[in-house]
Amino acid sequence: QVQLVESGGGLVQAGGSLRLSCAASGSIFSINAMGWYRQAPGKQRELVARITDAGTTNYLDSVKGRFTISRDNAKNTVYLQMNSLKPEDTAVYYCNVVGHYGNGRMYTYWGQGTQVTVSS
Fold first, then answer.
1. Is the pLDDT of residue 28 over 90?
2. What is the reported pLDDT for 3?
3. DSSP SS3 for 88
4. CA distance 24 to 6
5. How far apart are CA 3 and CA 97, in angstroms?
6. For residue 42, what are the contacts with CB-CB under 8 A and spacing of at least 6?
7. 56 pLDDT band (50/70/90 cuts)?
8. Residue 27: is its pLDDT beyond 90?
9. What is the mean pLDDT of the chain?
């Protein structure tokens, strides 16, 4: 089992910033990719940003230039720095990890979600 603990959500005015953190612990063995997804009311969950163990990143088009994902491999922690926030960024943000156990079996886990609300 892998546990994910998220922090950093909250309420911010448009144009403001927030930083999300997600720390993984447990039977990690090797994490291949860590990422952040979000889900707004009435909408499907979408990938916001993702970073691989090699440091390769990809972003949702609407957050490019505003959000930055980073990763501390020693701490098994992923961060999402969100700047110039817009009301349309309001959603529950979920951390996701993809990796494999020592026996080679792949896994994926989700965090409990953290609310980000951007007021206009």
1. no
2. 94
3. helix
4. 9
5. 10
6. none
7. very high
8. no
9. 96
Task: Examine the pLDDT at 29 and tell me if it is beyond 90.
Answer: no
Determine the Cα angle at 18 with ends 17 and 22, to 5°: 155
Q: Any idea which residue has 């390769």 for tokens? A: 56
C-alpha–C-alpha distance, residues 33 and 56, integer Å: 9
In angstroms, the CA 65 to CA 97 distance is 23
- Measured in degrees and rounded to the nearest 5, phi and psi for residue 48 equal -95, -50
The region, left, alpha or beta by phi > 0 then psi within -120 to 50, assigned to residue 32 is: alpha
Whole-number Å distance between alpha carbons of 20 and 39: 15
Angle, CA of 73, 78 and 83, to the nearest 5°: 135
